[in-house]
Amino acid sequence: MLGLILRGIFLCRKRDIDWFYQDGASRIFPDYWQDFLEPIPPAERGSLMHAYYKRLTGNDEVQRMAAAKAWSVWEGRAATLRANVGVVNHFADPHVALSLARIECHYFVNDCFMTPDQLLRDAHRLRKVPGVIVHGRYDIVCPVEQALALQQVWPEASLEIVSDVGHSATEPGTVDALVRATDAMADRFA
Question: Final residue of a domain: which of 65, 83, 113?
């Protein structure tokens, strides 16, 4: 492997999953959070991940689609620094919503098929591999703390925190940072 360019770091720790799908981001977007909670009865909200999984894998197609749309739109609404109707509409598309919600929830209820802190613990395998980590300062989906934690155990990687973006790869500042990182990596290995 010559090098890596990574964006929007998600470490798959329980606390990272809980931040966005149980308690944390809910306090930043409490209005959007109400829509995320809507498909789940109050008695099941103590474990939203499991409640969503039950609906996303159940036989009731209407319930499955309602859960998928609520899950996906929650992520789409939180993905950009400034509200972006185009992004939200993309996430609301039934095919996008169902595939995104089911895949993400399947991984999350299974702890991403990793042991606790496995990504950080195994990051030593990236030693001697140059890298660039691009992360939005206002990423609510995957807070920038995760990118910093990875960079600290992978010192060969530089971390560029883009000051005016959230999580989406389509925001102009992120696109610019990724293009610059790609050009620099190409020059390095030319």
Answer: 113
